[in-house]
Amino acid sequence: MSIQDIRSSTETKMNKSLETLQSTLSKIRTGRAHTGLLDHIEVEYYGAMTPLSQVANVNLLDARTLAVQVWEKSMAQVVEKAIRDSDLGLNPQAMGESIRVPMPALTEERRRELTKVVRAEGEDAKVAIRNLRRDANDGLKKLVKDKEISEDDERRAQDVIQKLTDQFVSEIDKLITQKEAEVMKV
Questions:
Q1: Which of 84, 106, 119, 161 is most buried by a 10 A CB count?
Q2: Residues 6+ away with beta carbon under 8 Å from 50
Q3: For range 142-166, the mean pLDDT
């Protein structure tokens, strides 16, 4: 393994951590409806747990209402129950083959709780990034120990890894700030 291999591997893993954070933040409700809100919900479909997107179509009716159009009439009740039982606190209303999912307005207290959740998710992502930095630095130390690179090369590589870490941490901070503003917006 070379310095470049360690750097590119670390950058790839850091990108994955950032994508995971973005995915997690997109699931946090902001009072406005968006189709990605129901992405993580799974329903039982012929004995197997299946993502909602594979048994129904999710559309926006307006800024505060989602419409879920199931493809099989028999799945309407199952989908409605899955949405109701999810951790989103939603109360769907069945209307034949389609289901309306109104978004209740968030209270000030709930908004503050959600910002705490956003900050915690961001901190988890930062910890993951720092762990990747540590792993990269350990790899560099191993290369020095095996006499594959000099200590000067190790120092330069550690500086590069640190700059990469700083870049991703600042990106996480931006995401958190944006999401907090989105959550607190009435």
A1: 161
A2: 42, 43, 44
A3: 93
